[in-house]
């Protein structure tokens, strides 16, 4: 009886653990959750859409470096070239700075449009990955998409890129979301905004190549879609 009276309450350990965290850390986490209102939340449904496009195009999920190099050699994967509008994260392995041709065109187009609007570069953080790389990534980041199955990462087929969201102003994020919303409404992209990595994860449909050919614009200096340009002028 006496031992029971002297024992600390069962919730004491949890309370103590919480109290050990600095107040500013707890406040930062609270603000982080409160201010996180992305237009494109990651979801299982989105992963299914991305994989459906891979299957429609009958593209392989690249297993290893041998397959990756073969696709580069055949031209099925194209290098992403930095320029005044686009920089590449120095941490991205040069061997993985590749993607499908239409994805490369999309990256160049959105980078040019962003530069046209803000006179700043967009940063590419990730592009093609192999199954081997994705499995390794999963060991360190449990939020990463699987390397296999119906919801596997679309990076494995070379359709997808991650563009850095961290460091953008609210105006720049809003512009990106409107641009991607417009493209998604046309069935040309399937985007997600990843909170852990702070990137725009964008799968580009094979239809982008067909749509791009119908646009009366200069590919190397493609401005933002007309609807967004008009909205920007109105602001």
Kindly describe this structure.
It is a single chain. The protein is α+β, with helices and mostly antiparallel strands. The protein has a single domain (38-234), classed as Muramoyl-pentapeptide Carboxypeptidase, domain 2 (2-Layer Sandwich). It is 47% helix and 12% strand. The protein has ten helices and seven strands. The strands form two sheets. A five-stranded mixed β-sheet has the order 2-4-5-7-6, with helices on both faces. A two-stranded antiparallel sheet has the order 1-3. The radius of gyration is 22 Å and the shape is globular. Residues 1-19 and 30-34 have low confidence and may be disordered.
Secondary structure elements and pairings:
Blueprint: H1 2-6, H2 12-20, H3 23-35, H4 44-56, H5 65-74, E1 78-79, E2 86-88, E3 98-99, H6 101-118, E4 122-126, H7 131-140, E5 160-164, H8 170-185, E6 189-194, E7 199-204, H9 207-213, H10 226-234
Compact overview of the structure:
The protein is α+β, with helices and mostly antiparallel strands and 235 residues long. It is 47% helix and 12% strand.
Give the proportion of residues in helices.
40-55%
Distance between the termini: 72 Å
The helix/strand class is alpha+beta
Task: Sketch the major β-sheet.
Answer: 5 strands, mixed
Principal-axes geometry comes out as globular
CATH topology: Muramoyl-pentapeptide Carboxypeptidase, domain 2
The number of domains is 1
The CATH top-level class label: Alpha Beta
Order of helices and strands: HHHHHEEEHEHEHEEHH
Strand content: 5-15%
DSSP helix count? Answer: 10
Tell me the Rg in angstroms. Answer: 22 Å
> How are the strands ordered across the major sheet?
2-4-5-7-6
Question: Per CATH, which architecture?
Answer: 2-Layer Sandwich
């Amino acid at each position: 009886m006496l031992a029971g009276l002297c024992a600390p309450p069962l919730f004491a350990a949890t309370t103590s653990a919480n109290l050990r965290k600095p107040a500013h850390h707890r406040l930062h986490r609270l603000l982080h959750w409160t201010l996180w209102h992305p237009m494109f939340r990651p979801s299982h449904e989105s992963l299914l859409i991305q994989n459906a496009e891979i299957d429609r195009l009958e593209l392989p999920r690249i297993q290893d470096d041998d397959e990756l190099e073969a696709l580069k050699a055949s031209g099925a994967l194209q290098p992403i070239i930095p320029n005044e509008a686009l920089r590449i994260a120095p941490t991205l392995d040069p061997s993985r700075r590749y993607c499908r041709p239409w994805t490369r065109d999309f990256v160049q187009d959105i980078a040019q449009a962003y530069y046209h609007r803000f006179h700043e570069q967009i940063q590419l953080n990730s592009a093609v990955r192999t199954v081997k790389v994705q499995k390794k990534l999963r060991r360190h980041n449990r939020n990463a998409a699987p390397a296999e199955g119906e919801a596997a990462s679309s990076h494995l087929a070379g359709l997808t890129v991650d563009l850095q969201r961290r460091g953008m102003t609210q105006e720049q994020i809003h512009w990106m979301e409107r641009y991607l919303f417009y493209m998604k409404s046309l069935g040309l992209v399937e985007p997600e905004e990843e909170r852990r990595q702070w990137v725009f994860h964008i799968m580009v449909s094979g239809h982008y190549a067909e749509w791009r050919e119908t646009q009366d614009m200069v590919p190397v200096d493609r401005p933002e879609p007309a609807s967004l340009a008009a909205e920007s002028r109105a602001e």
